[in-house]
Amino acid sequence: MIRYALECRDCETGFEAWFGSSSVFETQVEAGQVECPHCGGHDIRKQVMAPSVRPSERSGASDPEKVFGKLAAQARQHIAENYDYVGDGFAEEARSMYYGERDHRPIWGETTADERESLKEEGVPAAPLPPAFVPPKSSDKTKLN
Description:
alpha+beta
């Protein structure tokens, strides 16, 4: 379907109409089947207009999978560059910082379900990372670069 901006030459009223194709438009205008909604005139012409092109369903930036993939990669990079991996000692490290026994620093690591619940009950701020955001683990428990 094509939407045309049209104008009646009799009363100079502008209006829009939809046609199956440009040839259908031409045929209907020549047959006097296109009528001005204002005055009923049949002397109709197309107005100058920019084409309205509909983007494809899965174009670049609007593709949700690509957008999420890019976001996840950025999150992994940020975590790897700015957080210390503490492995399965996460609960102990987080608790030590919370109670002032160690200096605060950004960390990430692993916990058991029981440790997660215990941290939550104590009010220790911690949140699980979605799997897509988890960077590769460092075996020496130092800051990843």
